Hints:
The chain is of the alpha+beta class. It has 10 helices and 18 strands.
Amino acid sequence: MRKALGLKVEGRVATNVKDEHFSAPKPIMNLDRRTYEIYVNRNLDIVQKMITPITKKEYELEQQIAKEYDCPVCFQPTQPPIMMCSNSHIICLNCWKQCIKCPTCRTPKTFTRAFALERLHPLISFPCSFEGCSYTATASHTGIHEHFCPYFPVRCPLGDAYECQWEGNMKTLQNHLKECHPDNVFFTSHVVFRSRLFKRSHIKSYNIIFVVNGRIFKLDWGYDLLKSPKVRFRMVAIGNGNPIVMYNFTLVVAHSFPIDVWSKSFKLYTSHVKQSSNNYSVMNRREDEQVQYNFDEFFGRLVPFCDNNDLLYSVNIEVSHISMSHRNFRI
């Protein structure tokens, strides 16, 4: 249960006035973190004017009004257009499309809209719907926040490969990976691997997790020579709440590492995100929106680089400076 007394900053309620440090909402512009701090310091008066006190009574009243917007079917706050029956019971548009009758009083549904509630909707504060998050703001701000919220529910990225049933949020995912999948997780941007008996095996599969600058990446690769002569690779940026995930990665195979002028090596793949950032700057929440690369190579082309039937390969990941920033909006 959220504490009811605090300060409202752009619709946000701080639960502890003494411990909370406020700053102005970050502007939607291309500023690095240092430039942004200078921007805030020079506009301190503006920041102070944006902080307005809110009493416990006002907060409780606002929360009671917000509950009246809950849909009786999905139990989520309704958003315009808000539909209602002849007895003024409201229902969200998505549920209204699926219902034949009003779920509250069972009267036939109508095409009537609750215009009074729609006009009040932008003025009411709604809490974040994800468990554990205390963010509260107007509907438009809450909608943006939920898309980037670190409490967004996720499943284990190694769940399919290792039958892991873990479910949690982005905030606890790293701890889960460290505790339950330590052999598959690497907290570094550059790693050298050895695929044993690569040359003699007709089937192999690998699932590797990298954590670089707080970002989580997953490399899946493998082959089944009975089905295809190609080795398939996939690199995925899982994300951690920041909508901008831009990165470069390089995959190299070689007889030995570190590579010198006498080493036989082959740069298998190099991404070029910085040259085409617009194509790879994606809000990665759903599975089909994850920032990923898919590529393949013929098995026979990799065999000459084997060392005693083993294949040595290195993975290097570089996260762009934009991706490491803490902006709340995509630019």
